[in-house]
């Protein structure tokens, strides 16, 4: 694709910004339309956790390899983008520690057993506020505030209505999370977006220093953050409201203290809810929209948006540039549905 018009990325969560940054560093003109709302990428712990996610979810070998490939892109991506990537242990504590250890080892991940816990060094973490800010800073004036309300095909590409103006685009990347389909989208793309399931995820942020590394257990995790710690996280299919739920807060708090093996302490916890999108197989839509030239997707990663951000960005950028697809592109291809 060659044109004087930019590639317009609709949405400024982790997948949209990673895709925009990947295109930008390849020398492509991009424009990110940022609705400015608190998105699910911000309401997250920033886990880059192929090992623990694979073990807890009991995924296939192929899915674990995909997660590992996503993690392996992060060191270089973070260095170039100015993102602080923390490589720190992740520990599982719980009655099913033997099961988690066996799954880690079967999938080829590092696992160290110590009594009633198992630890891996194959996971890492970013701070979502810092990472999103770094990506936006790297993109500079290419990030503009606004909401795309209408999209239309033109002879040379696409036009998008943002407020009271129209933007011309060589290509469009839909990175709209669990949002509604934009008016004017072609039928195939609209149907794919309408089939995305919203999932509410609630986390708690506290200024208290609770852990030096990620600690997970049945029902909760506790992870260090620059400002203290984060406690998470619920996964509530079908939820679209962002009001914290008191019962969920209590369940997470109890599970977190149990994982830490400590008696509850008085802490002020700020509870937040983000709405994620999920496909039927739990993997994002990343690549060309079926049958629509110049229209691409980078959305609906379920719980692994941060883990898969650079991989999704590379897959979408390859599709835009007509490059040979990466070995993992097929698993993320929107056409699989």
From TrEMBL:
Residues 7-318 form the FAD dependent oxidoreductase domain. Keywords: Oxidoreductase. It holds the Pfam family DAO. SUPFAM superfamilies: FAD-linked reductases, C-terminal domain, FAD/NAD(P)-binding domain. It comes from Brevundimonas vesicularis (Pseudomonas vesicularis). This is FAD-binding oxidoreductase. The keyword Plastid does not apply. It comes from the Bacteria.
């Amino acid at each position: 694709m060659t044109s004087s018009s930019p590639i317009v990325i609709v949405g400024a969560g982790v997948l949209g910004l990673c895709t925009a940054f990947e295109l930008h560093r390849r020398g492509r003109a991009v424009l990110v339309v940022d609705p400015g709302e608190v998105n699910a990428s911000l309401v997250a712990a920033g886990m880059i956790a192929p090992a623990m996610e694979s073990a807890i979810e009991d995924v296939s070998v192929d899915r674990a390899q995909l997660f590992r490939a996503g993690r392996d892109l992060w060191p270089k991506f973070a260095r170039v983008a100015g993102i602080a990537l923390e490589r720190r242990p992740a520990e599982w504590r719980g009655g099913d520690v033997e099961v988690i250890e066996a799954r880690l080892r079967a999938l080829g991940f590092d696992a160290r057993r110590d009594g009633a816990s198992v630890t891996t060094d194959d996971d890492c973490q970013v701070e979502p506020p810092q990472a999103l800010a770094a990506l936006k800073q790297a993109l500079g004036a290419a990030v503009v505030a606004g909401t795309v309300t209408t999209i239309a095909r033109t002879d040379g590409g696409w036009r998008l209505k943002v407020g009271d103006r129209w933007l011309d685009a060589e290509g469009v990347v839909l990175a709209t999370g669990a949002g509604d389909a934009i008016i004017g989208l072609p039928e195939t793309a609209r149907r794919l977006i309408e089939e995305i399931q919203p999932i509410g995820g609630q986390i708690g942020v506290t200024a208290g220093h609770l852990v030096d590394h990620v600690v997970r257990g049945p029902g909760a995790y506790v992870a260090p953050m620059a400002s203290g710690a984060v406690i998470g996280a619920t996964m509530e299919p079908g939820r679209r409201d962002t009001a914290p739920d008191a019962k969920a807060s209590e369940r997470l708090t109890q599970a977190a203290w149990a994982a830490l093996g400590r008696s509850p302490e008085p802490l002020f916890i700020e509870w937040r809810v983000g709405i994620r999108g999920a496909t039927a197989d739990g993997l994002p839509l990343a690549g060309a929209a079926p049958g629509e030239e110049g229209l691409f997707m980078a959305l609906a990663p379920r719980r692994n948006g941060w883990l898969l951000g650079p991989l999704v960005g590379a897959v979408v950028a390859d599709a835009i540039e007509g490059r040979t697809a990466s070995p993992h592109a097929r698993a993320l291809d929107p056409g699989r549905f």
